[in-house]
Structure formats: structure tokens, C-alpha cells
Amino acid sequence: MFNYIIVGSGFAGSVIAERIANVLNKKVLVIEKRSHIGGNCYDYRNKDGIIIHKYGPHLFHTNYKEVFDYLSNFTDWRIYYHKVLAFIDGKKVPIPFNFNSMDILFPEILSKKLQEKLLKKYPYGAKVPILKLKKENDKDLKFLADFVYEKIFKNYTIKQWGKRPEEIDSEVTARVPVCIGRDDRYFDDKYQALPEEGYTKIFERMLSHPNIKLMLNTDFKEIMKVDLKGKKIYFLGQEFKGKVIFTGMIDELFAYKFGMLPYRSLDLHLEVIEKEYFQEVAVVNYPNDYDFTRITEFKHIHPIKTNRTVILKEYPKDYDPERDIPYYPFFDKAAREVYAKYQELAERFDHLILVGRLAEYRYYDMDDVIKRSLEVFEERIR
Amino acid sequence: MFNYIIVGSGFAGSVIAERIANVLNKKVLVIEKRSHIGGNCYDYRNKDGIIIHKYGPHLFHTNYKEVFDYLSNFTDWRIYYHKVLAFIDGKKVPIPFNFNSMDILFPEILSKKLQEKLLKKYPYGAKVPILKLKKENDKDLKFLADFVYEKIFKNYTIKQWGKRPEEIDSEVTARVPVCIGRDDRYFDDKYQALPEEGYTKIFERMLSHPNIKLMLNTDFKEIMKVDLKGKKIYFLGQEFKGKVIFTGMIDELFAYKFGMLPYRSLDLHLEVIEKEYFQEVAVVNYPNDYDFTRITEFKHIHPIKTNRTVILKEYPKDYDPERDIPYYPFFDKAAREVYAKYQELAERFDHLILVGRLAEYRYYDMDDVIKRSLEVFEERIR
Ligand SMILES: Cc1cc2nc3c(=O)[nH]c(=O)nc-3n(C[C@H](O)[C@H](O)[C@H](O)COP(=O)(O)OP(=O)(O)OC[C@H]3O[C@@H](n4cnc5c(N)ncnc54)[C@H](O)[C@@H]3O)c2cc1C
Ligand SMILES: Cc1cc2nc3c(=O)[nH]c(=O)nc-3n(C[C@H](O)[C@H](O)[C@H](O)COP(=O)(O)OP(=O)(O)OC[C@H]3O[C@@H](n4cnc5c(N)ncnc54)[C@H](O)[C@@H]3O)c2cc1C
Question: Is residue B187 part of a domain?
């Protein structure tokens, strides 16, 4: 009937399904608990034609040529350079924090002095993590580091993760740099572009193959059973002998046997505003004010002429498995240890493959997930 | 696992799935061979935000209060009165053909005379089928009947069905009336309105219930077997003991045992036009010119402010099972006889229920299908 079962239709599940269908010409069943495909990258058009990213803004950027080429099979692109402003001391300044930001926030003499010192110490165009800057033995650079730390990083991080900055894994903190220069772009990847008609169209094209059967609105637990002792997987009451590719939460797959992995979630508030534009760029961060971390205005991401606009406010919160979507893995040391146990258990299942942000419990961007899925297909499925 | 299996996610399948899930609180699997829900009523927004009816224009109109009330659970409405013009002798005139149409097409004296005669014979507001008019013993009315027959009905019918008018079942020809009055509305039903956000949203709301599992991209034949001898239905290799509700083609269900039922199909040509509007109303019929029967402009159905517009031309053709969608059952006497055989066979299956335009091989409008589905649910499922 089916040679493969895939749980989840985000990029991990959809890429692997597409490869199996097209390259191997085998039949695959994709099981998805939501009523739509695309996982967290799902988008749709509202009644004004504005494309809205249902689960928060998704900007595609990558240095992987193979990922860009692969996706180009399923979409045309519109070149787009993402810009983010942060609302600091009543002004909106570019981040990553750079010379333009200094010019807006600091008196001219201070800004000039800082720029001279930075240019002496670092090559033009470098991105210096604020944790590194903080340790410099220079009064002014230390001021700068503290300023950026206090005004841009600290409170944002507290809001985002609900913890003190010290408690946060360095993989996360390393994300916040100061840039030596005037490049206002948020990313520096070689390929930065948006799918012309949004992400959902990509998923539709990947999955609309006669070899792919798609089961929506279905939690895998409703039709599959995992036999932890016998290391077998049952589908509709019968042992499933084909490969199972699982892209959901690894702890849920194993019935939380070793406890729950921690995640951070979001409350997302969408607002329609009766004017042409609400803000200057796609995303404005609010580190110190309000309870939301940022406001996204979708018309900047997918331009369209309308009299109305739509914005999204993100309110981070802890993940409640009863109600919430697990947006961000929260990997401290304890979590990593629990994850390792699950991973070891997974390896003892013969035909089980775990791929993706939830299944691998990693901070994958879209391009990482696609790259990883293509690799897994080549190495373990093909 | 599932208590019910439904084949097809048009109105027939979706209404019954919704009822089973909400009223009976039982689990149901919906199998749909297309990559989307909604059957022929499916619509989507293009990149300008224009709602497009993928399988031809669908206008909701009904006299059944219970159907209108039921659908109101899943959508808000926008009041809309459908108007159709026919391109006749170089002019666009309202149809059903009425006094306004006569005033546009005929010299004033002729038009006045015709109107006086019609008003003497029929009550104001009446709709007189052209076949009836044709038989009147009055030179002028006969002229009118012949005119409408020749210019509006005949060639349209030949295009639409690929046959001579005489060969067409009267159920179809009776559809073309002359209206005694100046009411330009195409329908005269009590409830005429459009779902505010289109039809697909209705289906999404009907089907997004945890009891409903939705399997897209899946032909029932891929996972079900019909045992014609034993009168049993198998699902994934095992006998399925629950009820099966089938809304696809009855002849396909029974492997064309008694031959194929005839259908008429359409080639649909969508065009994007770089101006604000293309035509005056939602639908313009072309009985005598070109090869298409009509042009639909979707912006008139779901109004939106954009600089571009989208039109759809419909080219009728015979149904080829390899390539086409069976849009219209073509029921002549022979077809009805074949259908009767299938129906009799269906009745010999204990748990099989056939509902909908294809399964019952009937010219159901949306409201008919919904009414029928609600009845079938009450009488045979509840
Ligand atoms: C707020 C936010 C913003 C982001 N912004 C960016 C960005 O700008 N750029 C970027 O590159 N990346 C971004 N990402 C990351 C991106 O979303 C992920 O890389 C990508 O979605 C991972 O794909 P996936 O298939 O691994 O997981 P997902 O997209 O989460 O897909 C997993 C799928 O599995 C399904 N599933 C889970 N459990 C079950 C179950 N029990 N039964 C059946 N189905 C199940 C889920 O419903 C889901 O559809 C962002 C992430 C978030 C949360
Ligand atoms: C061009 C056109 C215009 C119309 N305009 C109007 C209008 O203006 N107003 C109005 O009220 N009505 C209109 N109708 C009628 C309306 O479309 C139908 O009443 C309605 O779609 C019937 O619903 P249904 O569920 O019976 O069938 P469908 O909508 O045809 O749904 C049947 C579903 O079953 C699926 N299916 C079929 N075979 C299989 C299989 N082997 N395996 C799995 N799935 C299968 C199909 O893919 C489809 O999704 C129009 C119809 C057409 C063709």
C-alpha cells in the first residue's frame, strides 16, 4: 500500500516525501495533525490579498547553493533583503546594531569616537558578538557593549526566553552581534529571497504527486502505535514494515518515557489596520517596551497595493502541551541529556528516521532543515 | 479506528462528515482524490486577492431555509443578486430574456407590442418556458419564441451539450424561460448570497474537527476494494464494517460493470487582464459567437479593488475519463437505465450510502446537495 510513512508536513516531511515520490517512485503516506500542510512555514492570503505567515514571519536566507537550487524547482523568487529595526530610547535603529544605529542614538562626537575605535580593532564589515565586545579593555567600547547588552539584548532575551541572559545557552546569545559598518541588512547570506507566491505554494507543489497520499487533521497517535518493548511500529493495527520518517516531537513519539523536553511558545496577535502602512520595515523589535518582542508587517515581506495592512505581535510564553505549539526548543544542559536518551532509544528502532526541528530538537532554520532532509534522503532512504 | 469512511469532500461528503463528527461524535475518514477539499465548489485567492472559482462560477441561491441556516454556521454572507447578460446581435441583453432585453434588441414598436401581448396572456412576473411560448397561436409571440429559441437557446445548448436541442432531456431545456417583466436577476430564490470569504473556508470549517481525518490526493481505489460478489468493502486489506458514504461516480465505484455513464466536461481557460474591469456583470453568455459558452469575471462575484481582473472562458466538450472532470451528468434514457442498474447493485450492499451529484447521477445544485446530505444523515446515518 505505502512503502513509507512520514509524520509531519513541514519542510522536513515534505522534502523527503517529494524525493521518495519523484526519485524512488515509491508510495508514501504523509500524516499531519494540523488541517494544512507546511508546518510552521504555512502562509495564506487574507481577503485583501496580503500574504500572512500564520506562525510568525519566515524569511528565507541561505548559503547553501544546493538548497536554493532545490527549492527553485518549486517556486520563482523575489529578491528581498530583510531589515529589522529596534525601538530604543524612543527611536528606531537598524539591527544588527551598526554605525547607522550609533549615529541615530548617540551624540555625534561619541558616535564618531566609537566608530574610529571599532575600525581600529576590527576589519570593516566584521560582526562582533556583544559578549566579546563586553570583555574589551576600553572604556568607550565597554560602554558600547553595555549599551547594546542592556538596551538591545538583555530585555529582549528575558522576554523571549523567560529567563535571565546568563541562563541562556550560548548558541542563542551568540546570535546578537555589533556590525562594523553601515550594512543594514539583517542577514548576510548569499541567497536572500522570498518565494514569489508564498511558502504554502511550495508545499502544494512538493506534495501534489500521485505517489504521495496526504492525511490531514490526523495525529499519528490516532493511527499508529509505537511498541517500545518490541521496537516495532504499528499502522492501523498491523506492523508497518516500511520506513517511518518522523518529524514531530521526539518525546511525544516515545510517550514522554524520559520526561518532557522543554520548549518556548508564542501567543500571536494579528491585527488589521486601516492604513496603507504601519511601520517602516518588515520587523520592528521592542526589547524594552511592551510585552511583545516584535511587530511584523507582512506587506513589507510580500508587497501589495492595498488600503489596509496587517501586523503581527509576538508574545513569548512557556509551552503548555495542552494548548500551545512548541515553537522553540529550549536546550539547556538538562534538556540535552533527556534528548540524548530519546535519541538512543530511537536508534534501536530498525526503520525509524528522525528529521527536523522537533525530532532532532535543534534550532534549524528552513535552509538547515531542507539541507538535512536532502542528506537524510541520500544517506538513509535512497 | 474510524466508524465511517466517506469518499469525496465536496458538499455531499463534507456535510455528512461534519454531521457525523459533531452530532454523533464519531470518527470519520474522508478520502479525496484531489489535492484540496471542496469538490467543484473549491475556490482560492490569486495574488491580487481575487477569489477564483477553480471549477467554474458557483452562485449560491436557495429556497430552503434549513440549508441557508445550516450553512450560516460556517460562513457570513454578502448579499448578491446574480445577473447574466447574453451577447446577441452585437448587444448584451439580460437573461432570462425579459422586457429589458426586448427593448435593447427590438425596434420600439415591436417591443411594445410584444410586451402588451405577453402581459395579456401571462401574469406579471411569470416565467414562461420558451418551449411553451413556441406553441402559442400568435404570430408575434411565435416570432419572440423563435427568436429566443434561435438566438439564445439553440446554439448555446448545442455548444453546451454537443447535441441538437431536440435530443436534450426536458429537465435541461425547461431551464430557459422568458420573463414577463423587468426583473434582471438570474435567480428568483428567496436566499441569494455569497459566502463572505469564499466557499473553501466553509469546507475548512466543516472539516476541521478532531473526529474528521482527511486523506487528500488519494483515489479510493488505492486503499479500498469493492467485492462485487461478496458485497463487501475492504479498507487497507481488511473488511470495513462501518458505513461507507460514497460521493464519487457510481459507475467507477462498481468498476464500470454495466458500462460507463455519459458526462459532459469543460475546458476552463483562465486569463488575467490588465484593467480594472473586463465586462459589466459576473457572467456574459455567448450563444452564437466563439467556441466558449460564457465568460465569467470573478471580481463581480467577490468585489475587490485591484488594477487587474481575471476572467474564465468555458469550452464544453465530451468527457474523457483519462483526462477530464465529469462536470455534468448527461442523462438521456439509455444513461438512466444504466444508472438504475448501478443503483440496484448499490442497494445490495448493506453499509453503502450514495449521495451527491455524481453518485446519484443528478443535476443537483449546491443547495440540493446540502439538503439531500442533511436528509440522508437524519434518515440513514443518525
Ligand atoms: C516564529 C518562528 C519564526 C521562524 N522564522 C524563520 C526564518 O525567518 N527563517 C528560517 O529559515 N527559519 C525560521 N524559522 C524556523 C522554521 O520554522 C523551521 O526551520 C521549519 O519550520 C522546520 O521544519 P520542520 O519540518 O522540521 O518542522 P515544522 O515546520 O514544525 O513541521 C513539523 C510538522 O509536524 C507536524 N506534527 C507534529 N507532531 C505531530 C503529530 N503528533 N502527528 C502528526 N503530525 C505532527 C506539525 O503539525 C508540523 O506540521 C522560524 C521558526 C519559528 C517558530
Ligand atoms: C461548472 C459548474 C458550475 C456550477 N455552478 C453552480 C452554481 O452556480 N450554483 C449551484 O448551486 N451549483 C452549481 N454547480 C453544482 C455544484 O458544483 C454541485 O452541486 C456540487 O459541487 C455537488 O457536490 P458533490 O459533493 O455532490 O460533488 P463534487 O463537488 O463533485 O464532489 C465530489 C468529490 O468527490 C471526489 N471524488 C470523486 N471520485 C473520487 C475517487 N475515485 N476517489 C476519491 N475522491 C473522489 C472529487 O474529487 C470531488 O472532490 C455547478 C457545477 C458545475 C460543474
Answer: no
Closest CA to B237 of B219, B217, B222: B222
Residue of A nearest to B50 (CA): A49
Based on the domain organization, do A67 and A40 belong to the same domain? yes
* Domain region containing A292: 263-318
Q: Confirm if A34 and A190 have CB atoms less than 8 A apart.
A: no
Would A323 be classed as within a structural domain? no
Domain count, chain A: 3
Is the domain of A76 the same as that of A107? no
d(CA B46, CA B308): 11
* Chain B contact probe: residue of A75, A197, A209, A217 with most B CBs at under 10 A: A217
Residue A51's region, left for phi above 0, alpha for psi from -120 to 50, else beta, is: beta
CATH of the domain at B76: 3.40.50.720
- Would residue B221 count as lying in a domain? yes
How far B8 CA sits from the closest chain A CA (Å)?
Answer: 14
- pLDDT digit string, tens, across residues B235-269: 998 999 999 999 999 999 999 999 999 999 999 99
Q: Span A290-299, mean pLDDT?
A: 97
Map grid coordinates 476541521 to a residue: B208
Q: Which ipTM value was assigned to this complex?
A: 0.87
Domain C-terminal end among A179, A211, A227: A179
Query: Is-contact B269 B315, C-beta < 8 A?
Result: yes
What are the residues whose beta carbons fall under 8 Å from the beta carbon of B117, sequence distance 6 or more? B138, B140, B141
Span A32-75, pLDDT tens digits: 999 999 999 999 999 889 999 999 999 999 999 999 999 999 99
B156 C-beta neighbours (distance < 10 Å), count: 21
Residues 6+ apart with CB under 8 A from B314: B56, B266, B267, B268, B269, B292, B293, B294, B296
Q: For residue A186, is it within any domain?
A: no
